[in-house]
Amino acid sequence: MTAPTTVAAPRSRNRGSGSARRVRGALLGLIVPSLLLGAWQLSSVTGTFSAVQLPPPGAVAAAGAELLERGELGVHLGISTQRVLLGFAAGAALGLTAGAVLGLSRTADALLGPTIGAVRAVPSLAWVPLLILWIGINEDSKVTLILIGAFFPVFTTVSLALRHVDRNLVEAGRAFGLTGFRLLTTVQLPAIIPAVFSGLRLALAQSWLFLVAAELIAASMGLGWLLSDSQNNGRVDRIFLAIVLLALLGKTTDALLGLAQRWAVRRWA
Amino acid sequence: MTAVLASSTPTDPRRRPPLEVSFSRLGRSFGTSSDRRVVLRDVTVDIRPGEVLAILGTSGCGKSTLLRAAAGLDTPDAGSVLIDGTEVRGIDERCAVAFQEPRLLPWHTLQANVAIGLPKSSSASAGKAKVAELLKLVGLDRFAKHRPREVSGGMAQRASLARALARTPGVLLLDEPFGALDALTRLKMQDLLLEIHAAQPTTVLLVTHDVDEALQLADRILVLGSSGDGPGSTVKDLIPVPGARPRDRSSRELAELRRHLLTLLGVAAH
């Protein structure tokens, strides 16, 4: 910790232009997607690709509208989001717990570290046959697969960050009688909040990845199922629809988590 | 002992009285058996309840190690530390430490940081009142809601002192608490420490490398350093400082003592 010398927080100086800068940043970020959309539309108009290879944006939107009208799109979106959120929440909670235990205890790290490392090395899809065999083709097996995907980023970042918490702060906490769980929640966990959120955002991205893996293989609804079903029926417009929706959902959930991160970093750092 | 200390009566009935500290043949080495470095050897000294003892020595002589042994942050490998007659084992409830750096939690307000020092047994309302009282005592009542990074180094160090005092310690352990401050702030902090000691009498162990600070604050000065033919540091001298506090920084008596101390520390006094 460096000795602070200024009385005013330097951050407050820029607050006035902060929101304007954010709007400008958001607009800048929209340029490339707009260009891509324009190029997409242009290529379908000029006939560079056939409509089967690359359906025009309008066709994809129409496919979406049709599914929405039939009430199917809402179901797919709802169930996929639900699976991701459940798996992500459970995986993140377990990752945080295991990361705290292994990050704080050398013994636990020596005992469990190699095993967890080996499990982490197993490619995600290798779990699918086992999960289907043990749990069956149902919600639980899909959420479990997503849980596995969300667990490791949180676990890894938390356990590593806890080793590097400012030793002086930890010692000060100990000197004032804080031990174990109270030391963790008072000193160590707040100190690694930025790292926790990095892990959570990685975990959320992994969750969407594992969702599609789970739904591609064994599902009767959800965006992953929509992908595989559309592949079987040759509905390229719906494949595009699913991909665009996955991109939008993934980006939206990540942005929400990013907002929470910004708040938390301001609160705890 | 100063007159003001003797006349002040504790206002808080739960306040711990000043406690006696005894180091008894204390030794501490670091490193593995093949590469062992003795830091402290055979340190024996008794500190009276309410006394301010300055621990003076060159850099790396084991001053902080001695203090950490009293706090229970470090375990000596020979001898023992007794506080009020019972041996220190692990973090000791009766002690409170202020470090060279403020070591405040950056995500808490000064108020919340001071509250971390409160003993576990204290009730919420009593704790709140105590924190407010301490912040006032160290002159930070207007900055209670500020974060550590929003205040100066001297103010952060005062908050750190208040956090230590929140423990109502029988023994206050100060590890070069003013070492990182500028000269002017340091003098002010020394006066503040004397005020606090008068208001809330407690035994104080003050590690410092500043001879003048020791002369200004201490009842006795313990000089640590190598002595005889053994390795590591031990008690080189234990000198009572004459005169009641606050002392005249330019008095003749202190000048002679300063020369003696500097010679002990291996510095030419010119």
CATH architecture of chain A: Orthogonal Bundle
Q: Report the CATH C-level class of chain A.
A: Mainly Alpha
CATH superfamily of chain A: MetI-like
Distance between the termini of chain B: 31 Å
Strand content of chain B: 15-25%
Instruction: Identify the overall geometry of chain B.
Output: globular
Count the domains of chain A: 1
The CATH superfamily of the largest domain in chain B turns out to be: P-loop containing nucleotide triphosphate hydrolases
Question: Number of helix segments of chain A?
Answer: 11
- From the N-terminal CA to the C-terminal CA of chain A, the straight-line distance is 12 Å
Gist of the model:
The complex is a heterodimer of chains A (269) and B (270). Chain A is mainly α and 269 residues long.
What are its keywords?
heterodimer; A: 269 residues; mainly alpha; MetI-like fold; 11 helices; B: 270 residues; alpha/beta; Rossmann fold; 2 domains; six-stranded mixed β-sheet; four-stranded antiparallel β-sheet; 8 helices; 10 strands; 23% strand; disordered N terminus
Provide a descriptive summary of the structure in words.
The complex is a heterodimer of chains A (269) and B (270). Chain A has 269 residues and is mainly α. Chain A has one domain: MetI-like fold (Orthogonal Bundle), CATH 1.10.3720. Chain A is 81% helix and 0% strand. Chain B is α/β, with parallel strands linked by helices and 270 residues long. In chain B, the strands form two sheets. A six-stranded mixed β-sheet of chain B has the order 6-7-8-3-9-10, with helices on both faces. In chain B, strands 2-1-4-5 form a four-stranded antiparallel β-sheet, covered by helices on one side. In chain B, helix 6 (183-199) links the parallel strand 7 (171-175) and strand 8. Chain B is globular and about 55 Å long. The interface between A and B is medium-sized, with 26 and 29 residues.
